[in-house]
Structure formats: structure tokens, C-alpha cells
Design a protein that fits this description.
The protein has about 550 residues and is mainly α. It is built from 21 helices and 2 strands.
């Protein structure tokens, strides 16, 4: 029997607390929505899932953001004169859409969420630097994103996730060492080092996006954030807080911290899975035995590997459909308009090829995703045991400054990159031109391919979340990086821009979202009216 580390014992206690909270039956009255209205709303939310596709664990918060923005727009139209009852309507909307279970959220949450909504309305109204233009819009969107994170946490507390993040953070703070040259060069301070480790862990463990990392950073820097007495000061400091977080997220050394945390996050995922799958009362004795722990690791590793395959396939299908609906259709319409303006006859066979090429490319990217080898499981088992059990010393991982290249070398390497970019785009142009594709179609196909290549690469990287082995790159892999990186860079730039100026999403929000919500509410009220009449007849 091995002694568990103090950090492991603390983690087990927190998982026991989460287990008790989840199995505890609500004592107060719960929020109920009509089942028919719920089915109608859930169907619409499935359509929105395709239009606004994000990773699965981010979809619920995306829905909260969307519905919250609509309410904040209404508040602004009424000069923030009345926000009463907005939280109840928001929660009902979310339950109808299937984002939370029916009859599970206590009615007391209406008041709790209303306080959160009122807090962010107060901050928005009373911050001293309420700017206009692009900066003001970016701040406004960021603030609502953070509000959505706090609302989600109120309705579905993430006790396990936060416990695992803090567990890994406590270890990594001791293990990650930063070269003194970095501190001497003022590239990082000791406080910023801890923040970069925290950000990297959030990204590596649970693939959090910027809004939720921002929310966790606010709580990390300002522990009183969620308390009522902090609101007036928060309103005064909010722009400063926003700038600090944007600076933290854009730190030039962030990728170095992420590389380490991404490589060593798998053992923590295994520990979390083991604690979630076992009876909390028995887990101490079981994991204290190395032989039993080894079997548990193998079991949860196998389960996570099988669910990972399913998630990767689902992500590939949904992201391809989403790209097709939100981007491909838009660009195809643009291509048809261009051809009409130029007076050319529309070739529907070429339009079909425009769709099939990027779709086939996504299929190839996902089909060629590598599975972790058997050696990887041994590495995961060893590292997990190192973390769980008490040890005299911990492994350390150093962050160093990259070697500086001379001015001449920078120019030379940049020139090679530019040449590879011209070769890549030139090759695509040559092939498509040989098949008599019109110029407009060639440009649009290049955009399609870039977007799909970026999305497919992101999906393929997601498949490596359990891999601890060093990836061996051959000559072909090197060549593909040289020629495909320019396309991936273009795809990333277009995708990021599209998020800001997605016309289809804006159209759904303006013309469909609000009327549909009103329609669903009408169905629910009509159903209750019919039930009342039936009771009278009896």
C-alpha cells in the first residue's frame, strides 16, 4: 500500500463533495416547462448547434450568451429601466432548449441568476470608460460572455472541473521552472508565471475558450468578484481588468506553457475519470494499492479513447456541416452573383465540385488521425502513479527563451515561407485552371480549402489529447508543414473574421431567434390554458 499525496487526498474530498451535491435531491420547488414546448425549442436548438457549431462542452454557454445578448439589447432599448423577471425567462428558455434538465433546477435559482444579471447591468451602466466604436463593442461582448460564464456556473456548478484544475495547478506551479533570463529580460514576472500556468491548464485540461478563461482569471485575481459588495468597485475597475486579461491571454510565452501542460494533462484526466467512476467511500483504499490503480487507469484510458473517437467523428461531421451552411453557401451565392454580373453561364457541375473538394479534404484529415500507441498507455500509467502517490521530489520542466536568430537569417526564413506560400497557392490555381474553373471559382475554392484545412487540423489535434509520447515527424510531415501552413494560416484568419461578421448568425438572431422564442412561449401558455379547461370539465 502506497501513501497518497496530500494534494490527492484534498482532491478526493472535493470529488466526494461534488458526488453528494449531485445525488442530493432538491428540497425546494423546481422549475418546470411544458414538455411539448420543450421538444419544439430543442429542435430549434439543434439547428442552432449546426449554425453556431463549437466544441460540445461550449455549446450550452454559447446558447446562454445568445439569449443574454438579446435581453441586454432589450434593456438598452428601455434605457435599463426594468430588468425584473429577465432571469426567470432566461432559465425557462435554456430548459426548453434542452441545455438544462426539466424539473432539476430549484426555483431559488431565479433570484440568484437575477442578481448576476443586475450586477452586469450595473457594471455596464456605471463603468467610467464606457467607450464607443470597436473597443466599446469588444468590451461589451466580452462582458456579456463573462456574465454568461457566471450564470452557467450558478446553474451547473463545476465542482469537479475546478478541483482538477486547482490540483494540476498546485503541482505545475512547483514543476514548471522559468529560466532566469526570462525574468531578467522583463518578459515575465513571478505573478505572471502563475497566471500563464493557470491559463495553460484551463486550455489543456478542458479546452476552455477565451470567455471562460477570462471568468476564471477574474476569480483568480479578484476572489471577491462573486460577492455583492464587490460590485461598485468592479464597475470602476472593469476596463482595467479587461485589459489585464487581454494582455495575459496574448502573452508571447503562452504557447511554451501550453506545450508542457498539454503534454502532461492526460494523467490528471485519468485521475478525474477514476474519482468520478468509483464510489467515493471506497476510493482511498483502492487507489492506495498500485496494482488496483494500474487496472483502474487502463479501464478509464480505454473508455476515454473510445469516447474520444466518437467525439472526433461528431466534431468532424458537425464542423463540416456548419462550415458548409455558414460559409460555403454564402460564398457559393457570391460566386453565382459574380458569374451573373460577368454574364457567364452558371456551371452547376463546377459548383458541386466546389462543395465536394473541401468536404473530401476534411474526410482525409479525420481518417488519417493517428491513434496513441501501446507505449503511450505505459507512459500515462507511470505519470499518473507519480502524481497520486507521495514522493520526495517532483519532475521539473523548464521554460527557456528561444534562440535569437540574426536579422539575415530572419529575412532568409521569411523569404522561404513566402516562396512556399506562392508555390502552394500557385499549385492549387494551376490544377483548378487545368480543369477550366473560372477565376472566381478558383478564389472561392482556395478559401474553402483553407477553412476546411484549419478546421480539420484543429479536429486532428483534439485527437491527440491522450498522447504523451513525443511525436516523430518524418520528411513528408515536414514538407506538408512547409506547404500547408500558409493555407492553415489563411483558414484561421478567415474563420476568426467570420465569427465577427457571420451574416447568417446575425440573420438567425434578428429574424428567427426572438420570434421563435415568443412562439414557444405561446405554445407553453396555450398548453397550460388547455390543461386548465380540461380540469374544469372534470
Amino acid at each position: 500500500m502506497q501513501d497518497l499525496s496530500e494534494a490527492t487526498k484534498k482532491l478526493i474530498t472535493q470529488y466526494n463533495l461534488a458526488h453528494r451535491l449531485e445525488t442530493q435531491k432538491p428540497e425546494a420547488a423546481t422549475i418546470h416547462v411544458d414538455e411539448v414546448a420543450q421538444k419544439v425549442a430543442a429542435f430549434y436548438e439543434q439547428i442552432r448547434t449546426i449554425v453556431d457549431w463549437k466544441e460540445e462542452h461550449l455549446m450550452r454557454r454559447a446558447a446562454i450568451i445568445r439569449k443574454l445578448k438579446r435581453r441586454f439589447f432589450d434593456f438598452e432599448m428601455n434605457n435599463f429601466s426594468n430588468t425584473e423577471g429577465s432571469a426567470e425567462g432566461l432559465i425557462l428558455d435554456l430548459i426548453r432548449g434542452g441545455h438544462f434538465a426539466n424539473d432539476k433546477i430549484e426555483e431559488t435559482k431565479n433570484g440568484e441568476v437575477q442578481k448576476i444579471v443586475d450586477k452586469y447591468v450595473f457594471i455596464l451602466k456605471n463603468n467610467p470608460e464606457n467607450k464607443q466604436g470597436k473597443a466599446g463593442l469588444n468590451f461589451y461582448n466580452w462582458l456579456i460572455d463573462v456574465a454568461a460564464c457566471e450564470i452557467e456556473e450558478s446553474l451547473a456548478p463545476s465542482v469537479r472541473e475546478m478541483a482538477l484544475i486547482n490540483f494540476m495547478f498546485g503541482n505545475m506551479k512547483q514543476q514548471i521552472k522559468v529560466s532566469e533570463k526570462i525574468f531578467d529580460s522583463n518578459l515575465l514576472t513571478l505573478e505572471e508565471k502563475d497566471i500563464q500556468i493557470y491559463i495553460a491548464i484551463c486550455l489543456a485540461l478542458f479546452k476552455f475558450d477565451k470567455p471562460i478563461i477570462s471568468y476564471h482569471l477574474i476569480k483568480y485575481r479578484y476572489p471577491e468578484w462573486t460577492k455583492d459588495q464587490s460590485i461598485p468597485k468592479a464597475a470602476q475597475d472593469i476596463f482595467k481588468i479587461w485589459r489585464e486579461i487581454e494582455k495575459d491571454l496574448a502573452n508571447p510565452l503562452a504557447n511554451k506553457f501550453y506545450y508542457i501542460c498539454e503534454k502532461y494533462d492526460t494523467p490528471y484526466l485519468m485521475i478525474g475519470d477514476i474519482l468520478s467512476s468509483k464510489n467515493p467511500a471506497e476510493i482511498n483504499n483502492e487507489i492506495s494499492e498500485p496494482a488496483i490503480l494500474e487496472n483502474l487507469i487502463k479501464n478509464v484510458y480505454s473508455k476515454r479513447l473510445s469516447t474520444l473517437k466518437a467525439r472526433i467523428s461528431r466534431a468532424a461531421i458537425y464542423s463540416t456541416i456548419s462550415i458548409f451552411i455558414t460559409k460555403v453557401l454564402s460564398l457559393l451565392l457570391l460566386e453565382i452573383i459574380i458569374e451573373k454580373i460577368l454574364g457567364n453561364r452558371i456551371n452547376f457541375a463546377l459548383l458541386a465540385v466546389d462543395i465536394l473538394i473541401p468536404t473530401f479534404l476534411m474526410f482525409l484529415l479525420v481518417a488519417n488521425v493517428k491513434k496513441p500507441s501501446k507505449k503511450n498507455l505505459n507512459l500515462v500509467t507511470l505519470e499518473t502513479m507519480k502524481i497520486v502517490y507521495k514522493r520526495e521530489s517532483l519532475d521539473s520542466y523548464e521554460i527557456k527563451i528561444s534562440k535569437k536568430r540574426g536579422f539575415g537569417m530572419k529575412i532568409f526564413l521569411s523569404l522561404i515561407y513566402v516562396i512556399s506560400t506562392f508555390i502552394t497557392f500557385g499549385a492549387i490555381y494551376y490544377v483548378l485552371n487545368r480543369f477550366d474553373f473560372p477565376a472566381s471559382s478558383i478564389v472561392i475554392d482556395m478559401i474553402f480549402i483553407a477553412i476546411i484545412l484549419f478546421a480539420g487540423t484543429a479536429v486532428a489535434k483534439r485527437a491527440q489529447e491522450l498522447t504523451m509520447e513525443e511525436e516523430k515527424e518524418g520528411f513528408l510531415s515536414f514538407l506538408s508543414d512547409v506547404f500547408f501552413l500558409p493555407l492553415q494560416g489563411l483558414g484561421r484568419w478567415i474563420s476568426n473574421k467570420w465569427k465577427r461578421y457571420n451574416a447568417l448568425t446575425a440573420l438567425f438572431n434578428a429574424l428567427v431567434d426572438m420570434p421563435f422564442s415568443v412562439f414557444v412561449e405561446f405554445i407553453e401558455k396555450w398548453r397550460y390554458f388547455i390543461k386548465d379547461r380540461k380540469e374544469e370539465i372534470r
